[in-house]
Design brief:
The structure holds two protein chains of two kinds. Chain A has eleven helices and twelve strands. Chain A is an alpha/beta fold. In chain B, about 35% of the residues lie in helices and about 15% in strands. In chain B, helix 1 packs across helix 14 and helix 7 packs across helix 12. The radius of gyration of chain B is 21 Å and the shape is globular. The chains are: A alpha/beta, B alpha/beta. At the A-B interface, helix 1 of A face strand 2 of B.
Chain lengths: ~300, ~375
C-alpha cells in the first residue's frame, strides 16, 4: 500500500490545477452514464471479481491492489449514509466529496441533523428544491436536475411496432404487476438496465416498448429517458417526481388499467420539456464547476 | 518565494499544536508567501484562529517549495518543487526502514537537534539535514503568572516538587522516575512527586504502576503518594504545572526535542534529561542535569496503527536512564535547593529563548 496517498492528493491538488481523476462510487443506474459523459477519468474501487463493465473508455475499475496507484481529485457518491463512517474513501484519500441525493428517503429529524453535520463540508446535489428542503437545505447544497442526452435517447421505432410494456427494476411490486398483466394475456417483460450496459443499448431497449414502468428510486430520471425514446413513462404516485409527462397512478389497479389505454406521447412537448429542464450542456457545465470548486477547496473533515 | 506547508495543524493534539507553531514561524519570514493545507491522522480537530486560516485560504498558481510535517512513510515527493521534510526523530537507527528511500528523495530535512541529525546520517540518509527546531511562543512565558499554580494542599506546596509529564507506557520511563524518587529520599526530606498525564484513563494506570513499584521496593511501610493530575494540554494549564513544580524530569526515550523542557529550563526548574538524546544537546552544560543512559532495543507495547508503517520495531533502539544515576541527580538537585532556596531558580537554566522565537526560526526556513 502506498502510504503517501493522502499527502500526495493534498499536494497535487494544490500544485496542479488540472483535474483528471475522479474517484467514483457508482449507483449502478442510468445516472452513472450521464456522469461518464463528463471529460474526466472515473476510477471505481472494484473488487477482485471484475464484474462491472460500463463499456466506456473513461471508466477504470480498479483491483484493490491498484487503488493507491493513482491520485484522485474528487470523490463522487450517491449514498449520503456512507459518509456517517469516518473511514469513507473520501476521508482516506483526503479529497473533497460530492454527494448526489436522488430520492426522497424519510429520515428522522435527528438523522437529518447527523447526516448534515457529517457532510457539512461535502457538496450535495439535489435534483430539485423539494428534496433539498426536505433535507433541511444543508450547507453546500446545489439544485441541479440531471441532464438527458437527447442525442442518444431518441425515438427510432414507431409505437405500432413496439411490445406493450416492460418493467424496470421489478422488485416484489413489479413482479405483482407483471403477474396481473400476464394473467390478462398482456405481454410484459422485466428488464434490468444497469450501468453495465452501454447507454445506446438502453435506448434500443426502450424503443422496443410502448410503456416503461419504473418503481425504483431512479424512476424520475429513467422514465424521462424512456420518454425521450418515445415510450410512455409510468410509475406509482411519488412526490419527488415532478415531470408532467410521467404518468403517476395512486395504486396498482389504476396503473394496470392505464396500460391498456393507448396514449400517445407528444414527442415535441417532451423534448421541449427536456431541453428546458434537463439540458445536458447546462448539467455538464454546472457539474464541471462543482467538481472544480470541490477540487480547489481545502479538505476539511 | 511561494511555500506550501502540509501538516496536521487542525488536529487537537500535540502534533497539531506543534504544526501550528511551525505555521507561525514560517509566516514570520517576510520572503515567504505561505499557503497551508491540512492532513489528518486523528478525527479529533479544533477550530484554528484567523491568522492561520488566512494562510489556508491562500492559493497560488505555482509553488517553489513544499514543506511537509508528516510521518516519514506519508511523505510525497513532487519533482517540480523543492521538497523539505520536517522530521521528529524519536528512535535511533532507521537503516532497516523503507522510509530511508523516501527520505533520500527529499531535497532537505529539518530536525530539531544535532543528535537527531546524527541518528539520520548514521541510518544512511544522504539528504541535506538542517537543524531548525520547532519554535516556542514566547508570549506564553511573558504572560505567565507565577502565582497561577495547581490547587494542591499547602503542606505539599511547601515541599520541593519534582514533576514530569508522562504516561504509564515504558517509553516514558515513569517507572524509573517513581522508583528513583522513593529510593532517593527518606521521610525527613520535604519532597513530592507530581505526575501530569494527558489522559484521564492514564491516571488509574499510573496509580496501579506506582502501587506495584512500592510493593516490589520493600523499603518502607508507608510511602509518599504521588500527585497525579490529568489536566488538559492547553497552555495555561501546562504553565500552572511549571509554576507548581521545582524540578522538571523528562526521561522519555523518544523525546529528542521537547518544548516544555526548554520552558522548564528557562523558568529555572532545573530539568533532568537523558544523556545521548537531543535534549542533552539543547540544554547544554548549564540548562539542566543530564542523567546517564543505556542503549536498548525499542520494544513497544502496542504495534503501529498500520502494518505498513515499518518504523517502531525492535531493530531500532532508544536510550533508557540509568536508575542509580537518576537517584544521584535527584538528590543533587534537592541539596542544591536546600543550600540556597532563594537562588535555586537561577543556578541552572538557559538564559533566553530568543533562538526559538517565531522570528528566529522563521529566518532559518528556506534559507
Amino acid at each position: 500500500m502506498q502510504l503517501s496517498c493522502m499527502t500526495s492528493s493534498v499536494i497535487n491538488r494544490t500544485i496542479n490545477s488540472t483535474i483528471n481523476n475522479i474517484l467514483y462510487d457508482p449507483c449502478f443506474s442510468l445516472v452513472d452514464h450521464i456522469l461518464y459523459q463528463l471529460p474526466y477519468t472515473f476510477y471505481i474501487l472494484g473488487n477482485d471479481k471484475h464484474t462491472y463493465n460500463p463499456h466506456t473508455n473513461n471508466v477504470i475499475v480498479l483491483n484493490p491492489d491498484r487503488y493507491n496507484f493513482y491520485d484522485y481529485r474528487v470523490f463522487i457518491s450517491h449514498d449520503i449514509e456512507k459518509f456517517t463512517n469516518p473511514n469513507h474513501v473520501g476521508n482516506i484519500y483526503h479529497i473533497n466529496s460530492i454527494i448526489f441525493i436522488h430520492h426522497n428517503k424519510t429520515y428522522k429529524k435527528e438523522d437529518i441533523h447527523i447526516l448534515n453535520q457529517q457532510t457539512e463540508y461535502k457538496h450535495k446535489i439535489f435534483p430539485d428544491s423539494i428534496l433539498s428542503t426536505n433535507m433541511g437545505s444543508p450547507n453546500k447544497s446545489h439544485i441541479l436536475p440531471l441532464g438527458i442526452p437527447t442525442s442518444i435517447f431518441t425515438k427510432s421505432t414507431d409505437s405500432s411496432n413496439r411490445k406493450l410494456v416492460a418493467i424496470l427494476d421489478g422488485g416484489p411490486l413489479g413482479q405483482r404487476i407483471k403477474n396481473i398483466l400476464t394473467q390478462n394475456n398482456l405481454v410484459c417483460d422485466t428488464i434490468n438496465i444497469n450501468s453495465d450496459m452501454n447507454i445506446k443499448v438502453i435506448n434500443h431497449i426502450f424503443n422496443q416498448y410502448k410503456c416503461i414502468i419504473d418503481l425504483s428510486n431512479y424512476a424520475h430520471f429513467n422514465l424521462i429517458c424512456a420518454l425521450a425514446s418515445g415510450s410512455r413513462g409510468i410509475t406509482l404516485q411519488n412526490a419527488s417526481i415532478t415531470c408532467p409527462f410521467i404518468e403517476q397512478y395512486p395504486d396498482i389497479n389504476t396503473l394496470i388499467q392505464s396500460i391498456v389505454h393507448n396514449k400517445a406521447t407528444d414527442m415535441d412537448a417532451v423534448l421541449n420539456y427536456i431541453e428546458t429542464n434537463h439540458n445536458l450542456d447546462t448539467f455538464n457545465s454546472h457539474m464541471t464547476n462543482i467538481i472544480k470548486q470541490a477540487d480547489q477547496e481545502v479538505f476539511l473533515r | 518565494m511561494k511555500v506550501l506547508f502540509v501538516a496536521p495543524y487542525r488536529q487537537n493534539d500535540g502534533w497539531g499544536a506543534s504544526s501550528r507553531n511551525w505555521i507561525k514561524a514560517i509566516s514570520h519570514n517576510k520572503n515567504i508567501q505561505l499557503a497551508i493545507r491540512p492532513i489528518y491522522y486523528i478525527p479529533n480537530t479544533i477550530n484554528i484562529d484567523q491568522t492561520i486560516l488566512e494562510y489556508e485560504n491562500s492559493y497560488y498558481t505555482s509553488y517553489d517549495t513544499v514543506i511537509q510535517k508528516v510521518l516519514p512513510a506519508n511523505l510525497h515527493i513532487n519533482s517540480s518543487v523543492k521538497n523539505i521534510g520536517i522530521l521528529t526523530v524519536e528512535t535511533c537507527d532507521w537503516s532497516n526502514s523503507r522510509n530511508i528511500l523516501l527520505l533520500n528523495k527529499l531535497d532537505e530535512i529539518y530536525v530539531s537537534t544535532l543528535t537527531e541529525k546524527k541518528h539520520l546520517e548514521q541510518s544512511g540518509i544522504k539528504t541535506k539535514i538542517s537543524i531548525v527546531p520547532e519554535a516556542i511562543d514566547t508570549n506564553i512565558i511573558t504572560n505567565n503568572k507565577e502565582s497561577d499554580q495547581l490547587p494542591i494542599p499547602s503542606n505539599i506546596k511547601r515541599n520541593f516538587i519534582f514533576y514530569c509529564m508522562a504516561g504509564p507506557d515504558p517509553i516514558s520511563n515513569l517507572d524509573k522516575i517513581i522508583t528513583a524518587f522513593h529510593l532517593a529520599f527518606d521521610e525527613q526530606d520535604s519532597v513530592s512527586l507530581l505526575i501530569k498525564t494527558d489522559d484521564q484513563n492514564n491516571m488509574k494506570h499510573i496509580q496501579e504502576l506506582s502501587k506495584k513499584i512500592k510493593e516490589t521496593l520493600r523499603i518502607n511501610k508507608v510511602y509518599r503518594n504521588e500527585i497525579i493530575v490529568g489536566r488538559p494540554d492547553n497552555e495555561t494549564s501546562i504553565m500552572s504545572i511549571h509554576n507548581t513544580g521545582n524540578c522538571f524530569i523528562n526521561l522519555k526515550s523518544t523525546d529528542n526535542f521537547c518544548k516544555q523542557t526548554l520552558i522548564a529550563s528557562y523558568l529555572g526548574k532545573t530539568p533532568i534529561v537523558m544523556q545521548n538524546t537531543g535534549l542533552a544537546d539543547v540544554l547544554g552544560k548549564n540548562g539542566g542535569i543530564i542523567t546517564k543512559s543505556v542503549k536498548s532495543p525499542l520494544i513497544m507495547q502496542n504495534p503501529p496503527l498500520m502494518e505498513e508503517y515499518d518504523s517502531y520495531n525492535s531493530r531500532e533502539f532508544v536510550y533508557s536512564p540509568i536508575i542509580l544515576n537518576l537517584i544521584e541527580n535527584m538528590q543533587k538537585i534537592y541539596t542544591l535547593y536546600k543550600a540556597d532556596k532563594k537562588n535555586y531558580n537561577n543556578q541552572m537554566r538557559i538564559d533566553n529563548l530568543t533562538d526559538y522565537s517565531f522570528e528566529s526560526i522563521g529566518a532559518k526556513i528556506c534559507n
